[in-house]
Amino acid sequence: SLTELLRDEMAKTSEELVKARQQSLPHREAMDRGRLRTTLQVLTQERDRTRRRLQVAELAGDFRELIDRQTAVQEDTMRLSETPDEQRVEQTLEVLDDQKDARVLFQQLETSLNDVSKWNNRLSDAASKALAEIRERAVGQRFEDAEAEIGRGRLVAAAENQNEIVERLSPALQNVEAARGIDPVNALPLLEIVTELRERQEVLQRL
Q1: Global pTM value
Q2: What is the dihedral of CA 5, 45, 185, 197, to 10 degrees?
Q3: Lowest-confidence range among 101-115, 150-164, 165-179?
Q4: Contacts (Cβ under 8 Å, ≥6 apart) of 128
């Protein structure tokens, strides 16, 4: 894996560091630091890419959270028709608040997608496509329509809008997930390698 390859490279660099410590000062000064510098540059680039991929993975998680939340609100909306009259007004207000909370999550997600879309790389392309998908399908308007219909007591119309929201978010989620490109479980060790190698470089510079 990428992490294992980078660890092997760091191990070779570490061997050079140990040898340098065993040499006299002139030999230390003559040691080629280019390899360490090059390795650090490569690792730093990979670290930056990994951090961006982790953010994309986080975006995908936000998508799934929003879809789950909206699905739950839709189910609550449909149950309102079975609610006794004396409880319906209170529960309708609760469902309306939940729908508003879902819209806030959507707005936050839209802002995050807009930020990632400005990175100007493969990952930003995925965010741009997801953002375009959302806007082209007028998902934001569907959130507003769902709220309005709940307020009017038109539960079937509200549920239809809510269902449209979920269906229109799914293709955008697929665009984001396709760009993840790295397992978040394997990404954190890579960040640790970069940190460790930087520390080793600082030691080497003091030799």
Answers
A1: 0.67
A2: 60
A3: 165-179
A4: 117
